């Protein structure tokens, strides 16, 4: 079997002072943080599409990277990618992976051939999983790249496209069951509109809900107990995507009585595109008890596209991990690097280095967030801000003992209403001390 990442690894923790680029400086898998090992807080996953399929193309040029797993035979290439993926995950000590159906197997001439190809490759993946103990964090199906999805998949104006989408999702759920996936993701790639005036938005959203309901029913039928996840994104490729952000997606799920079956897979770059911070999206999901999993990356805010860069901003990651810890963790979810190397980082070792960078940055985030929690830095500030609700009239309000009349009587008797400063600048400054 060919070795793809030659003379690299295993990647070990060497601490922040190491000069070895091929070592973890902060991610120390077995180090206990808040009572459990880092590797359980940070269930890192490698994204098949960005790592084994992306070759550095952009809107202005073809591949910049040459990968030795590519051959002239698409099935052989798919098999080589399985070897490369497991070699990389083992060398890095990464315990999970994620994929779209189209990432792992060639399309063939028709759906039948595509599904047969998937069967062959997933047999191979299953074997590797059994040998290594590496798990499937989630899989999904790509209902956006093929020409037939030009007008959407479940939201398409063509019923045949809806039917093909249903068949493809059925297969996706079967793969998830076969590989014991922890989660199953729906990202509505083209579920949105190009032009509102020619779109029946209510109808399209009802059809999306229909297919999701069918998926829930089928998962039940085949005994699949993976957590179902929806991944919000506001725009790109469509002008407007229906699952705009966490709040919009929850409203959609609740309207269609699907909220009990789904949680959210939240991506940092999608938060940026929606005009939110990533920790905002995580906090919104947590409010609904729907914090499912993370697609870890960063958007280049100057460019304003979905650039899917590796997440290296320690402050952002600290705030993100703070939300995760405050919500009690990600449950079955994990931290998938939905991130790709820059076009200029085309060397094979960049795939490893970029993942080290992301993992170390998230480890910094975890350590910093744990310190914030241990020292109750934010907890004390928040407690103080809301203390007027712990006694007197505030307590009565939150215990639902008051109404507009009783509050009016109370307010009329007030001589003055006293409020205090937020002191936000100094707290933001002190927060920097927690960034590791
Ligand atoms: C694209 C999305 C996609 C989903 C999975 O922007 O991030 O990659 O994570 O289909
Ligand atoms: Ca994503
Ligand atoms: Ca993205």
Automatic annotation (TrEMBL):
Its main location: cytoplasm. The keyword Metal-binding applies. GO terms for cellular component: cytoplasm. Binds 2 magnesium ions per subunit. It catalyses: alpha-D-xylose = alpha-D-xylulofuranose. It is found in: Cytoplasm. It comes from the Bacteria. It is an enzyme of class 5 (isomerase). InterPro entries: Xyl_isomerase-like_sf, Xyl_isomerase-like_TIM-brl, Xylose_isom_bac, Xylose_isomerase. Gene3D superfamilies: Divalent-metal-dependent TIM barrel enzymes (3.20.20.150). Its cofactor is Mg(2+). GO terms for molecular function: magnesium ion binding; xylose isomerase activity. The active site is at residues 100, 103. Keywords: Carbohydrate metabolism, Cytoplasm, Isomerase, Magnesium, Metal-binding, Xylose metabolism. Residues 112-279 form the Xylose isomerase-like TIM barrel domain. Mg(2+) 2 binds at residues 267, 270, 306, 308. Homotetramer. Belongs to the xylose isomerase family. This is Xylose isomerase. It comes from Spiroplasma clarkii. The gene is xylA.
């Amino acid at each position: 079997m060919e070795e793809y990442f030659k003379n690299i690894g295993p990647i070990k923790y060497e601490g922040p002072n190491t000069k070895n680029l091929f070592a973890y400086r902060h991610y120390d898998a077995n180090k206990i943080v808040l009572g459990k090992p880092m590797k359980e807080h940070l269930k890192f996953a490698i994204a098949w599409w960005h790592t084994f399929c992306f070759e550095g193309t952009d809107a202005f040029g073809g591949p910049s990277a040459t990968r030795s797993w590519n051959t002239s035979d698409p099935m052989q290439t798919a098999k080589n990618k399985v070897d490369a993926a497991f070699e990389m995950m083992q060398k890095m000590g990464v315990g999970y992976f994620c994929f779209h159906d189209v990432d792992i197997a060639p399309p063939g001439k028709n759906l039948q051939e595509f599904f047969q190809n998937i069967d062959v490759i997933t047999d191979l993946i299953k074997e590797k999983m059994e040998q290594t103990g590496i798990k499937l964090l989630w899989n999904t199906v790509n209902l956006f790249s093929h020409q037939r999805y030009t007008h959407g998949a479940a939201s398409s104006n063509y019923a045949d496209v809806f039917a093909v989408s249903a068949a493809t999702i059925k297969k996706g759920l079967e793969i998830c069951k076969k590989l014991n996936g922890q989660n199953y993701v729906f990202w509505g790639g083209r579920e949105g509109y190009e032009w509102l005036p020619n779109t029946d938005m209510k109808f399209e959203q009802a059809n999306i809900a229909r297919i999701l309901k069918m998926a829930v029913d089928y998962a039940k039928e085949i005994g699949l107990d993976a957590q179902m996840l929806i991944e919000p994104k506001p725009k790109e490729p469509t002008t407007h995507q229906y699952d705009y952000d966490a709040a919009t997606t929850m409203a959609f799920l609740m309207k269609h009585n699907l909220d009990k079956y789904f949680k959210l897979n939240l991506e940092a770059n999608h938060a940026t595109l929606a005009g939110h911070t990533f920790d905002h999206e995580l906090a919104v999901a947590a409010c609904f008890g729907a914090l499912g999993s993370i697609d870890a990356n960063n958007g280049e805010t100057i460019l304003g596209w979905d650039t899917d860069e590796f997440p290296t901003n320690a402050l952002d990651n600290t705030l993100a991990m703070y939300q995760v810890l405050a919500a009690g963790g990600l449950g079955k979810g994990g931290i998938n690097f939905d991130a790709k190397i820059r076009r200029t980082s085309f060397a094979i070792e960049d795939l490893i280095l970029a993942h080290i960078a992301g993992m170390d940055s998230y480890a910094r985030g975890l350590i910093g967030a744990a310190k914030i929690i241990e020292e109750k830095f934010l907890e004390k500030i928040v407690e103080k801000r809301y203390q007027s609700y712990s006694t007197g009239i505030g307590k009565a309000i939150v215990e639902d003992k008051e109404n507009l009349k009783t509050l009016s009587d109370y307010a009329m008797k007030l001589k003055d209403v006293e409020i205090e400063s937020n002191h936000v600048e100094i707290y933001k400054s002190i927060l920097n001390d927690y960034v590791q």
